[in-house]
Write a structure and sequence with these properties.
This protein has about 70 residues and is an alpha+beta fold. It has one helix and three strands.
Length: about 70
């Protein structure tokens, strides 16, 4: 399991390696420079898909936060 208090490029790479090591196919939306928008799409060997949003709520810029 990869757990982060704050997402960085290095931690994004670590998450990608952890997903691959677990045998999961994955892709991201290319927003490593904007963690508030970063999303991973993961597919397991049975074809089930889910999304992973590694940014925590305290990393979302106030201009992006919904009120």
């Amino acid at each position: 399991m990869a757990t982060f208090g704050h997402i960085t490029r290095e931690r994004c790479a670590h998450l990608g390696h952890a997903l691959a090591a677990a045998g999961l196919a994955w892709e991201d939306n290319g927003n490593q420079d904007r963690p508030e928008l970063l999303t991973y799409t993961v597919t397991d060997p049975h074809g089930r898909r889910w999304t992973v949003d590694p940014a925590t709520s305290n990393q979302i810029a106030p201009s992006v936060a919904r009120r």
